[in-house]
Amino acid sequence: VVVIEHNLDVIKTADWVIDLGPEGGSGGGQIIAEGTPEDVAQLAHSHTGRFLKPLLERKKGA
After folding, report:
1. I want to staple 19 with a disulfide (CB 3.0 to 4.6 A). Which of 2, 8, 10, 48 is the partner?
2. How much is the pLDDT for 62?
3. 3-state DSSP helix/strand/coil percent for the chain, to nearest 5?
């Protein structure tokens, strides 16, 4: 199943994430990162990863 999603609560539970960018619209279209949510969260060049990282760290500490 392929889901196109911007909700981080959905993304953090995915088995695999493919992050397209580097920006939206005509500034995107390239694969910036792919892997588990934890993998993507470690990549500073990924906008998705930067927003996902604190969410996953909070989940770990809970």
Report:
1. 48
2. 62
3. 45, 20, 40
